[in-house]
Amino acid sequence: xxxxxxxxxxxxxxxxxxxxxxxxxxxxxxxxxxxxxxxxxxxxxxxxxxxxxxxxxxxxxxxxxxxxxxxxxxxxxxxxxxxxxxxxxxxxxxxxxxxxxxxxxxxxxxxxxxxxxxxxxxxxxxxxxxxxxxxxxxxxxxxxxxxxxxxxxxxxxxxxxxxxxxxxx
Length: 169
Prior knowledge:
Layout: H1 7-14, H2 19-48, H3 52-83, H4 95-106, H5 108-118, H6 124-146, H7 151-164
Helix pairs in contact: 1-3, 2-3, 5-6
GO molecular function: protein-macromolecule adaptor activity
Region (Disordered): 102-152
């Protein structure tokens, strides 16, 4: 039997996944946890009656449940990190700002901005430096807000983001 993936490797594997996949992974893990817990409940009377194999299976399931719960936390941390990096602090003044905000949230604007910045007619290093400063300020604000977020608030924010992206739960 092969060893389970380490928590560190699991956390790294989450990085390239879209939010929808993170949500699906968390749901999958919770479903597996529920099935293992149900299995343990069914096996417990046999283990109590002295069936060593059932007792061993229960212990193994508890270890798997523990690892899965740890992974749910890792998914939650990654989702929380991303929820606060999706451009929530964009101030919308008019229709042009709405389009720019949507592009920033969807990631479609960043590539175009980078192409303009790197082109000879673009703002060059000065514009890049200004963008970096804005990003740093946003990250600091996001970190301050992130500290007091409850699970319910996180779930609500994630659901809103998914709905805005057109993903049905």
